[in-house]
Description:
heterotrimer; B: mainly alpha; Four Helix Bundle (Hemerythrin (Met), subunit A); 61% helix; C: mainly alpha; two-stranded antiparallel sheet
Amino acid sequence: MNPMNYVILAAILFSIGSAAVLLRRNAIVAFMGVELMLNAANLALVAFSKIYGHLDGQIMAFFVMVVAAAEVVVGLAIIITVFRARQTISLDEPAELKG
Amino acid sequence: MVNEVLFWIVAVMTVIPSLSLLFAKRPVHIAMSIVTVMVGLAAAYVGLGAPFLGVVQIVVYTGAVMMMFLFVLMLVGVDSTEDLKETIKGQKWIAFAGSIGLAILLIAVIGKVTVQPRNEGPVGDPYPIAIQLFEDYVLVMEVLGFLLITSAVGALVLTHVPRLKPRRAQVDVAKARVLAGADPVNKPMPGVYARHNALDIPALDPEGKPIEHSVSRVLKIRSQTQDGAEFRAQLEDPGHPGNVAESKDGDDK
Amino acid sequence: MQSLIWLAIAIPLASAAILLLAGRRADAWGHWVGVIASSAAFLIGAGALMEMISEGGAHPGTTLTLWEFIPGSELSVDVGLLVDPLSITFVMLITFVGTLIHIYSVAYMEHDPARRRFFAYLNLFIAAMLLLVLADSYLLLFFGWEGVGLASYLLIGFWNQKNEYATAANKAFVVNRIGDIGLIIAMGMMFAAFGALDFTTVFAEAPEASTATLTAIGLALLLAACGKSAQFPLQSWLGDAMAGPTPVSALIHAATMVTAGVYLIVRSAPIFNGAPNAQLVVAVVGAITLLLGAFIGMAKDDIKKALAASTMSQIGYMMLAAGLGPIGYAFAIFHLVTHGFFKAGMFLGAGSVMHAMNDQVNMRRFGALRGVMVITWVTFGLGWLAILGIPPFSGYWSKDKIIEAAFVGDGWQPWVLGGAALVGAGLTAFYMSRLFFMTFHGKARWTDDAHPHESSLLMTIPMMILAVGSAFLGLFLATGDRFAHFLEPVTGHAEHHDPVIAIPVIIGLTLALVLVGTVIAWMKYGRADVPEEAPAGSLVTIAARNDFFQDSVNRAVFQRPGQHLTRTLVYGDAAIVDGAVNKQARGWARLGESSRKLQTGQVRSYALTMLVGVVLIALVIVLGGM
């Protein structure tokens, strides 16, 4: 089995994740899209690790996981704060940057 | 052979649930689908010779991250379904086109690459991973430690709500109520002095009049109360089977 | 003493600074500081004069370099003072008359709350005027020139609480600026032609320069002189300048500052000597002004304005003399000195009369003041005789010489210029006699609240001293051509020429015309009754009363076209220069307005933009790699 298939799978998952970020108004769902994109990248990294017979790819994936965990913590905290302030987590609501 | 089967299982297990991100309405469903995706990915990692990463994936994503998502979903309201109708003009189609374009582009690039995979690569067991982490990447590890601590503190700061008013204990509530001139004792229970002990019957005061507010407000709204006057009429009806005094008199005859 | 001459400038300047900076603390004694400063300047000047005379012979002048002002390779100017017969003559005139007028002002301005400030300005004027006449370069002269302009402006508008007085000050200032432009242009041309601005270099190189250059410089200098000396066509400010207190009119607008133009012409003699055409223009301007001033003087009822017109006319005489070349320079300065005395005396007399008559200036409300103001009458009378040119009073010695000199030459010039001077003498006699008779003789036409009285000693003593000067200075200086010889090192030796008419005939004609003018004035204003309201008068009278419509002419010829030009330029500036800039700015603003709409505030739109960008960049990379 060619590990490149996993890379193609990662590309598909990445695209789905990006579409979710763009299409969903619920901040938590969009955030899950971001997580999916990160995981797709992880999958590609692990596949590369397999292809090149080197552990560095896995190490990178590990680091990505750590960073993602930190990101999730802060991101969800922000979502909760926004929810407290506005009683909504819709991404379309805070349109105060409108020109 | 096993690998090929594994790949297809993983592919189905990841792509189909992840589509729920685009089409499912309830966030909880989406979260659970993503949990499936994470498990599938963990399987893929194991299949790709990274068992340690697979386990970490399960623990970190399914166990921690996705549960936290669910937790936050509960916090902000689990029953909120999202209207999938797009509000920004053109956003939907451009987003779809862009994402599909991105996918096609990436797949086209990947398809052009030909690599010769080494069949015998190192297996990502905890031991070699640990060697790598704590020898080559020890500085990165420490920096990531700082990052995690910072994010934890950041989350605390962000979600912390300072108490603006003093805490109100039960004693304070009671005192405030008395000061406001409310009745110091309990309200009368329904049906206490009546000859009927149901909750939907108002109590009678010493003069024999019904006390309307002794019946729960909820029962009144649901129109499930009974009128006290009805029972007074029963009391005065000698032929009523429930009228004990009358029947006693009848027995005496 | 000559090396200390800088103190004559420094002391009044310091005094002015002290008086202005000390504020109200100096109110009690400030005026005496002013008087002392002016007297000190006079004493220094007198010392320098004594030294000069004792050295004897023809004194070529001493240059006193104080410090380097503008050091440079192309143009270097030092601050230096030039003490020679011409400048020392001016120093004496300025400080002597100035000191007398300071003393007079102590009494005249007694009831003015701003007397201290007045003396500060007077001292400033003395310092600036001395700088003007003592400077050894045109640039330094220009500093003094501007300084006296400033002092004149401040003093004309001294009572600036009255709107018209402030306007008069502005008018004087603006008209003087036009003259100043002439001086600046002249300096520029000098620098271009000679590469220097100091008198020594310029005058040494002037004979080698072309006639055209010298004529151009001369005409520019004449413009400057016209502005400062109120000569035609820049004469319009002098009448209005009478808005200042009378001592100011006496000192600045009669005796000293207005003669600065004559000084400039005489000082620049080497330039004018090489430019006969410029000289002719100077003489013609002088002749026109002397007649113009005389006509205005005949029509005015305001005593100060009549005297101002007379000043204009007399300076016209000086300009005429200065335009005649070497034969006239000495007489121009001679007349300037005697005029300084008798005109200052008469102005002070007028001030004394006004003081007595509740600041009334209309001569038709005077009359018969001879009885109540004997000292004023006598001193004014001596000045009157002097300006008329009756021998042996001062005016005779100076003015007659000018008339004689005007008749020297060939062709039409002596006839026209001499004729103008001669007629001017008769007109002078008429209007001055008219003024004198209307004020001191005839019947009393006083307003009801007027109680005339003789002025205090502080005021009359300066008048008496000036009257003595009016009477005998001319005789003293003219004996044996003393003054002309004294000035010779500066003005150059004049060849003796015979006038086109014999000298005794000229003297006779002049005296006859003076007599006729005086008699007519006596008939009309001395013996006959003078109406209290001015009669309608002929066309010429009306024109003269209105200063020959100088303001209207200025307005029509200069102001209106100037305003139109300005408005056109403003429009051009707003429409074209500003328009281009503004349109461009508006275009950018509009671009910003439209691009602002891209900023929807929708996070997802931004994310979409990012994605599209990523796809495009990836596409470029992929296609480029193929």
